[in-house]
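Record type: monomer structure entry
Structure origin: computed from sequence
Chain ID: A
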Amino acid sequence: MTIAQRLIDLGIILPQPAAPVAAYVPTVEIGGLLHISGQLPFREDGSLMTGRMGEAVDMDEGAEAARRCAIMLLAQMQAALGDLDRVVRIVKLGAFISSTADFTGQPKVANGASELMQAVFGEAGRHARSAVGVPVLPLGAVVEIDGIVAVRPA
């Protein structure tokens, strides 16, 4: 089964990849690795998921925000690679979660992205990960996730 077919089976429609909001590029492919800049959680209607964990954002919404970041990571992969079947393995995700000083559920929030990568890529979607709390993220986003992906040559 192709990754495109798996996305259809999961009911995932990839959005247009987000354009950079500052002086960087969305992806860099070098040495068999695709490095993907941090992606923010945009809902299907294009609105940004904002707030902080431990305040007005609950665990389910946080995990959904991480999932939405992962969908944007997939969109960036598709744009950079032309074909998601070039993905050999999701190597690492770095999850940054906007949260209060006493919030400690960052790993559970980040699972929203990790579980999606495993659903899409199977065993190749299992990856190393960081999940850290930060006081604020760009544009007030609740989650930002970057990634490193091993890829086949074009």
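Annotation 1: The chain is about 30% helix and 25% strand.
Annotation 2: Helices lie at 3-10, 59-81, 106-121.
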